[in-house]
Amino acid sequence: MRRKSVGARVRRIYGEKTIILAKKLKLFEGKFKVRSDRDFVYIPLVHKPSEDELKELTSQVPDIEVSTCAFPEKAERVATLADLLDGKLAPHLIASLPRSADVVGNIAIIEVPAELEAHEALIGEALLKTNKNVKTVLAKAGAVSGPYRLREFRVIAGEASTVTIHKEYGCQYYVDLAKAYFSPRLSYEHHRVASLVHEGETVLDLFAGVGPFAVQIAKARENVKVYAVDANPYAIEFLKKNVRLNRVEDKVFPILGDAGDVVEEKMSGVVDRVIMNLPERAADFISAACKALKPAGGVVHFYRFVKASDSLESVQVGFAEAVEQCGRKVGKILFSRLVRATAPYEWQSVLDVQVI
């Protein structure tokens, strides 16, 4: 939006000098943006310069012209946690505030340092004010653990709920953070893998969760079949909801069960691509992935945690050795990278591998 304000028009060559001088004279209006065209710069002023102020300006900037101009307004700066808690917490505690939050739907998730736990309700309320779309603030109350990769949370502000609808790349997902694993930090990875799938492929998602890989693949391709497996019955129920929500019932087929058992019983030698996003235990299922691929081979997206003492090359070597033990070979490493930090000196990595 543009608003009328007093402004100074100067030739472009004098623009920066005039801004510095206007600030020195406390004439510069910071709530508007400076404008320019091919020949001139238009600088917003807080008021019409006095005779002395104008004399100072014109002594250093030739051909300055003061008139009423239309200036675009600057976007209002969003207050940070530190802004809102300044004066309410001691300076050394302000320095310990979380620098970021994971946002899933209308739920924000933060890690509260031990020294701030006594103030977590205050921090939660402040976080609600910094993001109008957030209705609930959860504090992590433990590490991801157990067969279903779940984490405990404390509700520290807002509605007492762990259920929400999360949106990414045109897809929507029902999520219950207390019952099924979901990470918004994998948003790009979901999109990246979906973009690699070709029309006509049969895909097996061995650890599908609520379906972020499976649903995006189905939305991205007209002719595809995705078999989405998970051992967590709550995850499968949410996956079924998400399949209906995104209208991909004819492309995504949820399966409750152990990944190895499902492959052995019904998925041997039938798929073109396998997704293995279970970094803690994916290595235990390499044989299942190899068995699921068609005889001609296919692509495996393999995720694993690596520490600073490891390397992507060591992950590649270990994966290739495991594939050879299954009677197959690695044809080519198509892609590898560190996806995200998961702990101090630990990262989640991914390999895209052609297996023959």
Question: Layout of SSEs?
Answer:
Layout: E1 2-11, H1 15-24, E2 35-36, E3 40-44, H2 51-60, E4 65-72, H3 81-85, H4 91-94, E5 102-104, E6 107-110, H5 120-130, E7 136-140, E8 153-158, E9 163-168, E10 171-176, H6 187-196, E11 202-205, H7 212-220, E12 225-230, H8 233-245, E13 252-256, H9 259-267, E14 273-276, H10 286-292, E15 298-307, H11 312-325, E16 330-343, E17 346-355
Parallel strand pairs: 6-7, 11-12, 11-14, 12-13, 14-15
Antiparallel strand pairs: 1-3, 1-4, 2-3, 5-6, 7-8, 9-10, 15-17, 16-17
Helix pairs in contact: 6-7, 9-10
Quick tags:
alpha/beta, Alpha-Beta Plaits, GMP Synthetase, Chain A, domain 3, 3 domains, 17 strands, 4-stranded antiparallel sheet, 30% strand, 11 helices
Please characterize this protein's 3D structure.
With 356 residues, the protein is α/β, with parallel strands linked by helices. It has three domains: 2-72, Alpha-Beta Plaits (2-Layer Sandwich); 81-161, GMP Synthetase, Chain A, domain 3, CATH 3.30.300; 184-355, Vaccinia Virus protein VP39 (Rossmann fold, 3-Layer(aba) Sandwich), CATH 3.40.50.150. It contains eleven helices and 17 strands. The protein has helices spanning 15-24, 51-60, 81-85, 91-94, 120-130, 187-196, 212-220, 233-245, 259-267, 286-292, 312-325, and strands spanning 2-11, 35-36, 40-44, 65-72, 102-104, 107-110, 136-140, 153-158, 163-168, 171-176, 202-205, 225-230, 252-256, 273-276, 298-307, 330-343, 346-355. The chain starts with a strand and ends with a strand. The model has no long low-confidence stretch (mean pLDDT 95).
